[in-house]
Automatic annotation (TrEMBL):
It holds the Pfam family Hist_deacetyl. PANTHER family: HISTONE DEACETYLASE 8, HISTONE DEACETYLASE HDAC1-RELATED. Belongs to the histone deacetylase family. HD Type 1 subfamily. It is found in: Chromosome; Cytoplasm; Nucleus. It comes from Chilo suppressalis. It catalyses: N(6)-acetyl-L-lysyl-[histone] + H2O = L-lysyl-[histone] + acetate; N(6)-acetyl-L-lysyl-[protein] + H2O = L-lysyl-[protein] + acetate; N(6)-(2E)-butenoyl-L-lysyl-[protein] + H2O = (2E)-2-butenoate + L-lysyl-[protein]. Keywords: Chromatin regulator, Chromosome, Cytoplasm, Hydrolase, Metal-binding, Nucleus, Repressor, Transcription, Transcription regulation. This is Histone deacetylase. The keyword Transcription regulation applies. Residues 31-320 form the Histone deacetylase domain. Its EC number is 3.5.1.98. The keyword Cytoplasm applies. Its cofactor is a divalent metal cation. It is an enzyme of class 3 (hydrolase). The lineage of its organism: Eukaryota, Metazoa, Ecdysozoa, Arthropoda, Hexapoda.
Length: 435
């Protein structure tokens, strides 16, 4: 049955997915099996018919080196077979493999596939073949240069941002996960070219413990990181209020050429690792403001440990960017029983008090606005600008070759697809991306 009510959006939207990406993302221990649940819910609503579904290319060793250390990648490559009773050793722990990031078999395949998803999505924005690119298998914002951290084995976000910087001078990174986006901020703490903006729960003992109000970047990048530390059980009303105050200010001052949003779903009500009380409506309100800016946009996943709600959220966001409304009742599909007892697309908030008082929020807003006024340059400093232009010339030449090739390849595959007969009704055709 057709579940799409209307198509209002003329934007070119690419959704990165294939069986290998789902298979590898399903193997992530903290979100085992989640990727397929998300994908199948999107398919059940028939949304992939309106998306360009693009097969990702796995990241190479050299791709991963654009952020991660050789030592860490070599270690990842060395992990082949892990038995159920495997005990972590000192070397594993050196690279962050322990309680929350246990080593997994064929780790390089997992890491290169997950990273490749976000890099491929970013390349579509660089080539100009999409206005919005989505990878719900990405968004692993805690991974560090030298190792894994907080359920994250590879920082696909930094690798995607590095890809975007081949074309775009100023990248705005927005992190909506309930946890601080520390891995991404750490990567760009010194940078004026990438502004990181994170909204998250911040209280003693809550992971990762960073992302306070005073945490604004260092030295050359001072003022180009912004953190909104929220108290427990923040609600749609709270995120809407603070996002409405902060986002336009950051956008106007920083003037990004492209935006990356980590849509971690663990800020939703009922998440076992969360402690916030958002619904999909709260995320959508933020997304509406971001979409209104009409800039190229990369949407990534992240946390989200109540899988049914995570799938609800990312399906809702996918529909939102497509400009379609979803039937309240979830269509029957393979994972339908996971959505009981209501079997509806709505995420209900919990009956719990939002700890954030208006006075506290206003104090944070005032400090953040003060910092934005104090530190953000309207133009990059002359020296940085000059260096950038030189680098950009080389990058531009490199990109031109790549763009032409990419666009022609996407066209070729579209033509081939059109020649196919008996297309499956609920599944979109999958295009190949050739670099
Ligand atoms: Zn999280």
């Amino acid at each position: 049955m057709m579940r799409i009510h209307e198509i209002m959006n003329s934007k070119r939207i690419i959704y990165v997915s294939d069986d290998n990406l789902l298979f590898q993302c399903n193997r992530l221990p903290a979100v085992s099996g989640r990727a397929s649940m998300v994908h199948e819910l999107i398919i059940s609503y028939g949304l992939t018919k309106y998306l360009n579904v693009l097969r990702p290319i796995c990241a190479t060793y050299d791709d991963l080196r654009k952020f991660h250390s050789d030592l860490y990648i070599d270690y990842v490559m060395s992990i082949k077979e892990i038995d159920d009773d495997y005990m972590t050793n000192e070397e594993d722990e050196e690279y962050g493999m322990g309680y929350d990031c246990p080593p997994v078999s064929d780790m390089f395949q997992l890491v290169s596939t997950v990273a490749g998803g976000s890099i491929t999505a970013a390349k579509c924005l660089v080539s100009g073949s999409a206005d919005i690119a989505i990878n719900w298998c990405g968004g692993w914002h805690h991974a560090q240069r030298f190792g894994a951290d907080g359920f994250c084995y590879v920082n696909d976000i930094v690798l995607a941002i590095e890809t975007l910087r081949q074309k775009f001078n100023r990248v705005l990174y927005i992190d909506l996960d309930v946890h601080h986006g520390n891995g991404v901020q750490d990567a760009y703490n010194l940078s004026k070219s990438v502004f990181t903006l994170s909204f998250h729960k911040f209280e003693p003992g809550f992971y990762p413990g960073t992302g306070g109000l005073e945490d604004i970047g260092v030295l050359t990048g001072k003022g180009y990181s912004c953190n909104f530390p929220l108290q427990a059980w923040y609600s749609d009303g709270t995120i809407e209020y603070v996002f409405r105050q902060i986002f336009p200010e950051v956008f106007t001052k920083f003037k990004p050429d492209v935006t990356v949003v980590q849509c971690g779903a663990d800020g939703l009500a009922h998440d076992p690792n969360g402690g916030a009380n958002l619904t999909a409506h709260g995320y959508s309100l933020c997304l509406t403001r971001i979409l209104d800016m009409q800039k190229p946009l990369l949407l990534l996943g992240g946390g989200g440990y109540k899988f049914s709600n995570t799938a609800r959220l990312w399906t809702t966001i996918t529909a939102q960017v497509l400009g379609v409304s979803l039937d309240e009742n979830i269509p029957e599909h393979e994972y339908w029983t996971e959505y009981g007892p209501d079997y509806t697309i709505t995420v209900e908030p919990m009956l719990i008090k939002d700890s954030n008082k208006r006075m506290y929020l206003d104090q944070c807003i005032s400090v953040i606005k003060e910092n934005l006024n104090k530190y953000i340059d309207v133009e990059p400093p002359v020296q940085e600008k000059a260096q950038k232009q030189d680098t950009n010339k080389e990058r531009h030449k490199h990109n031109c070759d790549r763009v032409c090739e990419t666009e022609s390849i996407i066209k070729i595959f579209k033509n081939n697809v059109h020649k196919k007969e008996n297309a499956v009704s609920t599944h979109s055709d999958v295009y190949d991306f050739v670099d």
